[in-house]
Design a protein that fits this description.
- This protein has a domain at about 5-65.
- About 70% of the residues lie in helices and about 0% in strands.
- The protein is built from five helices and no strands.
- It has helices spanning about 5-20, 25-35, 45-65, 70-80, 80-90.
- It is elongated, with a radius of gyration of 19 Å.
Length: about 90
């Protein structure tokens, strides 16, 4: 029999990742932003809470500015080679 996921621990780990990746944001900001669609948290399951936090984490990481100069250069270089990449896929 498969072991049931422990959503509570996964929520804690997600919050720890958020703390590490965005140390200037407090936990209230993370929770408020991740759960802004919920009017009342009383009946929200741990599974749903985890989903909302993970969705928020993904969105935050997509929107977060890239400050590493080398990473930016690689992104720009990749964008300049898109046409070549598409041509290789067609072959």
């Amino acid at each position: 029999m498969a072991k049931q996921p422990n959503y509570y621990r996964q929520i804690i780990r997600t919050l720890q990742r958020l703390e590490k990746s965005h140390p200037t944001y407090n936990i209230g900001r993370h929770l408020s932003t991740a759960l802004y669609e919920y009017n009342d948290l009383w009946g929200v399951s741990d599974k749903e809470l985890l989903y909302a936090l993970e969705k928020y984490e993904i969105e935050l990481n997509i929107d977060y500015p890239h400050v590493d100069e080398e990473e930016l250069k690689e992104i720009i270089k990749g964008g300049m080679n898109l046409e070549r990449m598409f041509d290789e896929e067609d072959d």
